[in-house]
Amino acid sequence: MITRDDVAKHAGVSPATVSNVLNGSKYVSSELVSRVEQAIIELGYIPNRAAKSLASKKTDHVGILVPTLSNPYYGTIAEGMESIARHHGYIVSLIMAEGSTDQYISRIIERQLDGVFLSDFNFGLTNKQLLHMKNKGVHFIIGGDSSRSDSTSATLSGPRITVNYENSIYELLMYLKKIGHRRIAFLSGNDPLITEARQTLFLKWSHELGFDDDPDLVVSGTPPYMTLAEDGYRDTKRLLSIRKNFTAIITLNDLMAFGAMKAIREEGLHIPEDISVIGFDNIYLSETACPPLTTIHIPKYEIGQIAMKLLLEMIDGEDVQSVKLESTLILRDSVAPVKKG
Amino acid sequence: MITRDDVAKHAGVSPATVSNVLNGSKYVSSELVSRVEQAIIELGYIPNRAAKSLASKKTDHVGILVPTLSNPYYGTIAEGMESIARHHGYIVSLIMAEGSTDQYISRIIERQLDGVFLSDFNFGLTNKQLLHMKNKGVHFIIGGDSSRSDSTSATLSGPRITVNYENSIYELLMYLKKIGHRRIAFLSGNDPLITEARQTLFLKWSHELGFDDDPDLVVSGTPPYMTLAEDGYRDTKRLLSIRKNFTAIITLNDLMAFGAMKAIREEGLHIPEDISVIGFDNIYLSETACPPLTTIHIPKYEIGQIAMKLLLEMIDGEDVQSVKLESTLILRDSVAPVKKG
DNA sequence: GTGAAAGCGCTAACAA
DNA sequence: TTGTTAGCGCTTTCAC
Question: How far is A93 from chain B (nearest CA, A)?
Fold first, then answer.
């Protein structure tokens, strides 16, 4: 292995000088700079990260905590994060939220990651655990928009990246009202104890706009509270079987919407003529769905990018403020006016 | 920061003994083991990876090189890989195949990753680059099934994980023939210079089974040779516009199939009555497509798991053989007999 | 402006 | 069975 000392010897300078030209930490005469650079190329020298980390107490290594990668939603966020990380010499590791929260917190701390993006809110982490990470020098940004109202944990504290759905949901419901919808179902997929932001806003505006207030139309998930297509499928099937005569259904995300659409088609009903379907996220497959899915766009790639940028700032010792992004209503063909009669 | 020496002092043993109980590398009396374990808990000691890496020349850090995470195909492979890695104390980093090949090769080497899974074949890597990685102590497994026949590189050498499509494609084509199809289109999405395994096998069996041999029905992609839904959409639109009267279309992957379906619907044609559609991969959304997509299942999660297992073996100094998995034809509703008349 | 040297926390001989 | 110790390759003062 070629080490920094080899380069120093080859260039006829001291090891420290090699470090200095490499890190730009001190001024080095252009004479020596070029000699060192020459030596680096000739020897094919690549610095040893482990040694660097050990000495500098920085790993240039961050993580993204995700519940799954089957949902391209998280994949896109990860891509955004990586795109920024790469340009700053950072590498992004995948931390799957599997096992107990303590287990994946340990994995993060043990690696001395410089930072981690908690891409979703509902990992069941506690403030105590977050504090523990912080004390261990791991910076973090909290994504996702849920606000847990269960007893397990109060609102987590730390810089957040959130999305403001308020306008989009209002716009959506106004639109649905205008085209005649009165009974709208909402599939949350989540634990009934968790008050999810999307659901909360739906309920609020739904109430204010005078939609039918049938609690049966708001469906929580079943353990383990996944929000995949199969979950949307199952919950929609159940909802259809109890004949609630809703004319539109909103699901927590696009994946669940795909499942809902399948269930609706299987019952011999038509989308959007019989039932309109609306998702959340605007994953890129929602456009090629059949019919193309009306959904609320979340700037996923940007979320990943911003998360990484904030992390970089925090690592630099800067104070970081929470960031709020806006969602956008995307109208496609899965929504139509209620049939007359 | 709590170090190993602190633990040693606290437990009244030598630092080496702490290492030994931590790594199980040597026998330690149960008396000392419990004293050390106690101290570790009391102090909340977490070993420093950087120091460990520096001393052991192992990072317990691997990577997965992927072209994109918008396609859940790669997400699922990454999940499989991570599931095994985690249980062996490894962490998986995301290496996006962006920039030049030299750039991401450097990123891998510089991090001294113990290993990397090249999830797809067509990254444009050369044998020389692979050799370079190997010499730097980075083990690798090659996934994907393409066989480049262009001048850039001959077949890459190294342990592979491949999927045998032969049977599935034969089975598919036999089935299509039986139900009356004679003109079948194939969207490769790729560079025409790249002879892709899926395409090659299609051509071979297509020829042997006596399907119409119209070269216009085999469509290459356009730079930058992506295989996303929009690419399938665009190529199908073009194909439909030149009125080739095909009755079935096979696309390189499910994503392209989704795009193809959209294009077909937009032309006012019906799936499967007018045109049957078949994909590859069996990503989990293919089941909720409309109609549910007939496709060839690739064991994605298993590929990730096996890749990681092979990597672990290589890191252990074992000789590793290439692995060949079988694909499976999944019949769903996007295929139907050709209409009479 | 440049270099010498003391760590960073751990592994892995080798001693005891 | 347990302990001692010499590195691993780099950062970072602090002299020169």
Answer: 4
